[in-house]
Recover the amino acids of this structure.
């Protein structure tokens, strides 16, 4: 039997079922022979939960090399191992993620690199900076002796603050004083949208309905556009400014925005009068977010020096990542294979995290995979039991954040209490009960 | 009317019919600049009123250079321009302007003015609203996909998977050339046959042949096919008809004719082709042999026939005949492999329908049906039937035998049920004498209590009890067996232990004693088990004895013992003796029973006496409240429902809430569940492979989201998931360059994954 085992280990193509057939021992599944199924499974679930917490080591590594805070990042659209990052001193770096090394450094702009986006084919990328330029760069490193120069440079009238590329066509969108749609071949925008006089901080193409765009403006509003139309579509004004937004890559009409009021809001673009979900847990302004490519979760970066992972319909985060040295997290990305999270922060480092903190990296043997699946299922099955819940939900927080959190909780609690009291002591029906979701939208135009 | 608007008006008019009369409209503008607005006014007057009078104008000049727009004012205010004036001139124009004229006339009739155009803001608002509604309806088309994905049992990302297996070369590399000689050869071959490399559905030759087939040919072909089909059905019908003919004579004649024909053919074949004939002959021989083989051990052989005849007179012959038939039966019987499922079913009384468990009503003892006796088990009635049969209905026997088969199946099923019932009953009976005195007392009480209960409930209870006991018994049984084995093992082990000194022997002796004392702790189980020894001759106790079931001896696996074992053994033995000494005086069983009784007594509701002495009568030392009063104010609480462990001698069931346990229990019903039962059911059904087969477990534990290592998950693509109703969808207004051709990144091999 040893020889068989060895052969199986060698040929990974053998499925687990074959192995099962080979090594199956006839078993009696008579339930009377295997009593106490619930307690036994409960114990297993408890152990699985404990082990999950024990093995929860999400930090994979950091990319060190920038000489100023990292302001923006972009994923390569065709390769998992390449990351682009731009810093506040106008420097742009290309990273090889598996080797965790910088492969290329470009002094792209004077002042900040405000935005990077990679072209859908992965052959080139665009950057915008404080120097009012849009630059297109080749993804490949120039040969020996060649100078590092952009393929093309567009000089704009005003500063650009963000850029995003269309999913399939040779067009891209920038934002600054206005939201402009550019054709790659032209030096002036094909179309520019504005609604009042405001500056925009972020513009994003919808990856599914590729002609749609959304932007965050400094007048606390989120504006939706359709590239085919002459005018913007809709505008939601919120109580505080939204910093960035991100569309769900699997559900065309949902997008989430990160707000200055410590929360994130998921909107259905068809019903903008109230967000679908309010995601709260951060204790400071949320600066960036990115959806997982499966569209099930998203990661958010905050000024409070933490990264949090939220389920798309969960009001509270399922995970919080922090390290001692990580400062304000400016930008965050979820890798295209749904395995890793990348965060760029003020203290010039890019950090690589696992998306599932306790996941074992690398190839799993079929038995390992099965055991993992079983453990996951058990955890899910017994998730409501108090002991398991307590263990599964326990996270460590730095003292500062912990304190702030407590403070914030108290504030929110007192506010809620007051509301309750007002309702209680006024004529029934005169003070309406307002749901949390309704509180944050000021106006829809 | 402002001058400027007037000018505009005239200009508009100019635009409307430029070819009508080039002469009339410029002459007034030739006025010099100095006269200013006055000139403009006269211009207007001249232009409008005298239009119909003046016919020829020769001068012509540019208006814009001479008339300044700043000098225009509202001089001619109040004087309205009438359309009819303008139209006067028109009447004399050629006919091709009739349409315009008509339109103008219609305009004249309408008195109300047009509304002002909307302001830019309002216009944009409307535009925005329309565009938003349009896009949101467009986006809503994703709704079904989104809900489907949300509800999917499992989603495998990337959603659109590359087809596994080898790909065609042109998919992998675009600019590829045959380089090695082998490749070149293959390609030249393909080239010669005009085999298309890119889309190899049909070769040009095939396509040509397809094209060559004309309509007429197709029709002829179809007709042929139709005819063939008709013929076939005709022959089929004929064959059917012939087969249905019952006349034996007919068939005999037919077969004879066939045989003759065959023989004739065979003879011919012998002459023409002896080799083929030999083969044919061999085939025939084989057929004959097979037939003979199938007839073996039946009563149609020569020997058998003779025996049948002899059987009337000779007993030996009859016996031989019977043996022969039995042999046939044995041989022709289909082998029944006892499957595991059946055994399991036998052991599980739960799986039975309720009516089977009901005790049989004591009805007519003579009626075998009412007694639940079945044909095969009780051979008597069956035999008697058989005795009767030959006299009465011998000719029908064959048919009856055919009918017997389904009946037998039913009977077998019923018999199985019967066996199980008896097994249970016997076990109940087997248990009853075991009950100790205290238990008997309990039982007596129970019986009293049970009298009140309805009959059905009683039955149910007893059934439950029976089930439990059955289960318990089965659990106990292996214990006994194990202990026995252990003893046997120890015996074997003793052989392995080397005795070095006297101490060793003493230890061994101790061990032996210990082994004798050992079964004390498991007293209760032994008590019950020993009371129902597996006596084979009594039918009552039917505990499965492995020695009966397993006919083959199990292989004894000899494991070589490590030398360390000896020491371990000694240590263990010492410990066991120590433990035994420590608990020598303990009678665990009686303690347990005492505890249980105490608990029962505690849980019994107490009688509350509320009599107040001296209330309404004389009170004092030595005076008791009256009997009537005492009876009136003594409150007898309602009896509690029977304890759950009432009939379980070895169990205490406590129904008190345990705070320590509550910390581990779910106190609120979790979200998706609406009833506690639902939640409990999900918790109670195990998922592990201890309780489920491998495949079931894999299905149960399948993760909801599966991702592949190193695969980029692209955003969901519109082309793959939403079918466009109008294929010529509006292109974005932007002019796209040649780069847009790159946009179609999806390779041709992609296909939609079904969920």
């Amino acid at each position: 039997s040893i020889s068989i085992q060895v052969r199986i280990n060698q040929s990974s193509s053998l499925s687990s079922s074959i192995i099962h057939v080979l090594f199956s021992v006839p078993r009696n599944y008579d339930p009377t022979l295997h009593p106490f199924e619930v307690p036994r499974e409960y114990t297993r679930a408890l152990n699985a939960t404990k082990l999950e917490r024990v093995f929860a080591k999400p930090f994979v590594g950091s990319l060190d090399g920038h000489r100023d805070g990292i302001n923006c990042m972009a994923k390569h659209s065709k390769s998992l191992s390449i990351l682009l990052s731009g810093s506040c001193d106008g420097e742009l770096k290309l990273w090889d993620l598996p080797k965790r090394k910088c492969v290329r450094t470009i002094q792209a702009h004077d002042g900040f690199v405000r935005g990077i986006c990679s072209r859908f084919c992965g052959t080139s990328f665009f950057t915008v900076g404080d120097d009012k330029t849009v630059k297109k760069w080749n993804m490949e490193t120039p040969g020996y002796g060649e100078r590092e120069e952009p393929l093309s440079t567009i000089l704009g009238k005003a500063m650009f603050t963000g850029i995003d590329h269309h999913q399939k066509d040779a067009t891209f969108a920038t934002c600054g004083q206005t939201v402009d749609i550019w054709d790659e071949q032209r030096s002036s925008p094909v179309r520019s949208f504005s609604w009042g006089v405001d500056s925009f901080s972020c513009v994003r193409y919808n990856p599914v309905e590729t002609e749609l765009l959304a932007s965050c403006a400094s007048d606390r509003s989120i504006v939706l556009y359709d590239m085919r139309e002459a005018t913007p579509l809709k505008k939601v004004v919120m109580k505080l400014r939204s910093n960035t937004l991100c569309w769900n890559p699997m559900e065309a009409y949902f997008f989430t925005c990160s707000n200055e009021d410590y929360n994130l809001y998921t909107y259905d673009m068809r019903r903008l009068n109230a967000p679908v979900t309010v995601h709260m847990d951060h204790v400071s302004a949320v600066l960036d977010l990115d959806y997982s490519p499966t569209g099930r979760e998203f990661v958010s970066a905050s000024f409070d020096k933490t990264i949090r992972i939220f389920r798309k319909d969960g009001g509270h985060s399922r995970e919080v990542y922090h390290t001692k040295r990580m400062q304000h997290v400016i930008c965050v990305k979820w890798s295209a294979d749904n395995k890793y999270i990348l965060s760029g922060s003020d203290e010039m480092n890019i950090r690589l995290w696992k998306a599932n903190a306790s996941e074992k990296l690398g190839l799993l043997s079929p038995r390992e995979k099965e055991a993992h699946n079983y453990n996951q299922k058990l955890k899910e099955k017994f998730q409501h039991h108090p002991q398991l819940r307590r263990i599964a939900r326990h996270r460590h927080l730095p003292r500062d954040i912990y304190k702030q959190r407590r403070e914030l909780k108290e504030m929110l609690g007192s506010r809620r209490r007051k509301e309750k009291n007002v309702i209680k002591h006024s004529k029934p029906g005169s003070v309406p009960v307002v749901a949390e979701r309704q509180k944050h939208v000021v106006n829809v135009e | 009317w402002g001058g400027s608007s007037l000018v505009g008006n005239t200009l508009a008019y100019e635009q409307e019919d430029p070819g009508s009369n080039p002469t009339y409209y410029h002459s007034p503008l030739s006025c010099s600049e100095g006269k200013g607005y006055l000139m403009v006014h006269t211009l207007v007057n001249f232009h409008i009123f005298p239009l119909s009078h003046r016919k020829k104008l020769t001068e012509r000049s540019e208006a814009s250079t001479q008339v300044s727009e700043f000098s225009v004012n509202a001089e001619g205010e109040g004087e309205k321009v009438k359309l009819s004036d303008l139209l006067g001139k028109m009447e004399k124009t050629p006919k091709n302007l009739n349409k315009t004229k008509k339109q103008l006339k219609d305009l004249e009739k309408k008195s109300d003015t047009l509304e002002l155009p909307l302001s830019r803001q309002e216009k944009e608002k409307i535009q925005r609203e329309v565009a938003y509604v349009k896009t949101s309806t467009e986006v809503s088309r994703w709704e079904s996909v989104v809900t489907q994905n949300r509800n999917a049992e499992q989603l495998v990302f990337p959603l659109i998977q590359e087809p596994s297996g080898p790909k065609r070369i042109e998919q992998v590399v675009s600019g590829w050339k045959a380089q090695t000689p082998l490749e070149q050869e293959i390609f030249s071959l393909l080239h010669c046959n005009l085999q298309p490399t890119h889309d190899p559905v049909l070769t040009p030759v095939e396509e040509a042949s397809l094209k060559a087939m004309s309509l007429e040919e197709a029709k002829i072909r179809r007709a042929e096919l139709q005819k063939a089909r008709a013929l076939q059905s005709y022959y089929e019908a004929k064959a059917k008809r012939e087969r249905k003919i019952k006349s034996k004579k007919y068939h005999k004649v037919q077969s004879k004719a066939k045989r003759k024909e065959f023989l004739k053919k065979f003879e011919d074949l012998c002459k023409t082709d002896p080799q083929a004939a030999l083969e044919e002959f061999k085939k025939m021989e084989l057929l004959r042999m097979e037939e003979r083989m199938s007839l073996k051990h039946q009563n149609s052989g020569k020997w058998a026939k003779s025996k049948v005849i002899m059987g009337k007179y000779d007993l030996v012959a009859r016996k031989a005949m019977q043996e022969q038939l039995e042999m046939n039966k044995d041989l022709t019987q289909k082998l029944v492999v006892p499957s595991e499922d059946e055994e399991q079913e036998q052991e599980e009384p739960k799986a039975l329908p309720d009516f089977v468990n009901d005790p049989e009503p004591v009805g007519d003892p003579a009626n075998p049906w009412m007694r639940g006796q079945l044909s095969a088990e009780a051979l008597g009635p069956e035999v008697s039937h058989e005795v009767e049969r030959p006299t009465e209905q011998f000719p029908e026997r064959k048919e009856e035998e055919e009918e017997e088969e389904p009946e037998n199946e039913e009977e077998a099923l019923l018999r199985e049920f019967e066996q199980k019932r008896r097994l249970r009953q016997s076990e109940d009976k087997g248990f009853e004498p075991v009950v100790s005195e205290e238990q008997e007392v309990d039982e007596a009480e129970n019986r009293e209590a049970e009298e009140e209960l309805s009959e059905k409930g009683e039955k149910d209870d007893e059934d439950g009890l029976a089930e439990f006991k059955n289960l318990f018994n089965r659990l106990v049984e292996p214990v006994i067996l194990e202990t026995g084995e252990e003893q046997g093992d120890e015996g074997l082990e003793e052989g392995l232990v080397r005795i070095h000194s006297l101490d060793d022997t003493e230890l061994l002796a101790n061990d032996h004693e210990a082994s004798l004392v050992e079964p004390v702790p498991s007293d209760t189980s032994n008590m019950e088990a020993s009371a129902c020894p597996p006596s084979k001759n009594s039918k009552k106790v039917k505990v499965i004895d492995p020695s009966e079931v397993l006919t083959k001896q199990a292989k004894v696996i000899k494991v070589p013992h490590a030398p360390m074992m000896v020491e371990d053994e000694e240590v263990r033995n010492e410990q066991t003796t120590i433990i035994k000494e420590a608990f020598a005086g303990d009678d665990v069983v009686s303690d347990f029973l005492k505890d249980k009784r105490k608990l029962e007594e505690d849980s019994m509701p107490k009688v509350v006496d509320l009599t107040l002495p001296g209330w309404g009568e004389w009170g004092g030392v030595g005076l008791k409240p009256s009997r009537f009063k005492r009876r009136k104010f003594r409150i007898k609480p309602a009896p509690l429902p029977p304890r759950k462990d009432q009939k379980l001698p070895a169990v205490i069931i406590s129904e008190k809430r345990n705070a320590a346990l509550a910390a581990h229990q779910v106190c609120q019903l979790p979200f998706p569940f609406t009833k506690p039962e639902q939640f409990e059911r999900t918790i109670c059904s195990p998922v592990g492979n201890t309780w489920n087969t491998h495949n079931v477990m894999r299905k149960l534990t399948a993760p909801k989201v599966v991702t592949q290592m190193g695969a980029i998950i692209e955003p969901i693509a519109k082309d793959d998931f939403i079918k466009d109703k109008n294929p010529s969808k509006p292109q974005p207004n932007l002019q796209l360059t040649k780069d847009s051709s790159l946009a179609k990144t999806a390779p041709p091999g992609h296909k939609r994954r079904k969920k």
